Amino acid sequence: MASDDDVIRKRLLIDGDGGGDERRLNALMKLFIKWCNSNDTDVSTHQRMLSFLAVGEFAMAKSSFVYEMNMKQMEKYQQLQEQIDENVSFAKEEIEKCKLELSEARLVRKNRKEYDALAVVLKQPDRKQTEQQIGALKIDLQELEATELKLLEKLDLRKKQFHALLTSINQLQTMLNDEEVEEKNEADVTDDSDITMDTTPALMAQKT
């Protein structure tokens, strides 16, 4: 059957990242009262109490470190979120511009078809008096074609810019995921160190 000291030691070692500080203090208080009421001056018990105090201080320091790390991470997330929101807003504006330019290009194409149909009608032999009008329509058609070409080139540029923006957002997300993996690895290393520091006082107590 396990002794009271073994039970107390197991409770302190099983306790996680400072979530059971109250239980740790209660266990330490019981051990202290037992040591005070004991007629035999047990040096090992005194050392165990010091070890428990060290574990508590380490847990407190670790909790403070984790809190600061979480605050910094939250600040990074906030900055990244603001940047992503800004990029998304810019992307939406560019999409609206592209839609408007595409609508204009479609209108130009429609007008060109109408001018072509009208030119066919005006070329009939019984309407030779409209040759001047046909010439004017050709000039207008050329201008419309030039305008359409410019609009299509501008639309293609907008598409490339929007693609580059989406690529930038994906890169930012990848960087964030990499940082989360690194922080998780650092947390795992810290946990391994915690286990080593928690078990060392118990081993020293057994040797004494």
TrEMBL record:
An annotated GO cellular component: THO complex part of transcription export complex
Superkingdom per UniProt: Eukaryota
Presence of the UniProt keyword Nucleus in the record: yes
Record key words, sorted: Coiled coil, Nucleus
GO biological process, any: mRNA export from nucleus
Recorded coiled-coil stretches: 74-101
Signal peptide: none
Region: Disordered, residue numbers: 182-208
Composition-biased stretches (Acidic residues): 182-195
InterPro entries the UniProt entry points to: THOC7/Mft1
Family: Belongs to the THOC7 family.
PANTHER family xrefs: MAINTENANCE OF KILLER 16 MAK16 PROTEIN-RELATED (PTHR23405), THO COMPLEX SUBUNIT 7 HOMOLOG (PTHR23405:SF5)
Protein name (record): Uncharacterized protein
Species annotation: Ciona savignyi (Pacific transparent sea squirt)
